[in-house]
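[09:14] KT: can someone run the structure on this one? pasting the chain below
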Amino acid sequence: NDKTWTQVADEVEISAGTSIKTDTTGLATVIFPDGSEMRLNSSTQIKLTTLGLQGPSLKVSVFQTLGSTWHRLQKLVGAGSYEVETPTAVASVRGTIFGVDNTATSADVFVEDSQVEVNPIQTIGDNRILLAKTMLTKGKMARIDKQVINQMASKHIQKVADQPIPKEKLARRWHKFNKLEDKEIIKAKIL
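[09:31] RB: done, structure tokens below
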């Protein structure tokens, strides 16, 4: 559960309902049955709310409480789905490479390959309302925070503003690490 943590240094099998938290020096990688991967940076916390296969179709839902994740997905087939939810947004994909940086007040969703659907979330009491979706394409990023959510809810703005991924984000050690890891995966598949 979310209150009791077990330190892990080797491979372990996980299932829906599993929470993963990395400390200030830890990293983690989740490898899904289809070969897709989710990597967690240090000081990151997620919960796998859905994890399973229906025939050849992978279904994954992640709630990212805090921190940075990197997702490298195989092309989903059939009814497959992959979602990352934060307190302020939901990113939905069908086969891509993307990242989510989540703080207590905002989420940055950025796309390395293909496209990602982003939906800001408005919370009213216990209800979470998905606002208008935006498709982000390769090289783009969107920041979703309370101000964006309030503007969309009150002015009925139909799209989250996107921008090129900032150079400082591309220069981060976490970003470079994941680009190298992805390059090694592609290289191994070619050999």
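[09:33] KT: thanks! The first strand starts at residue 19 and ends at 21.
[09:34] RB: yep, looked fine to me
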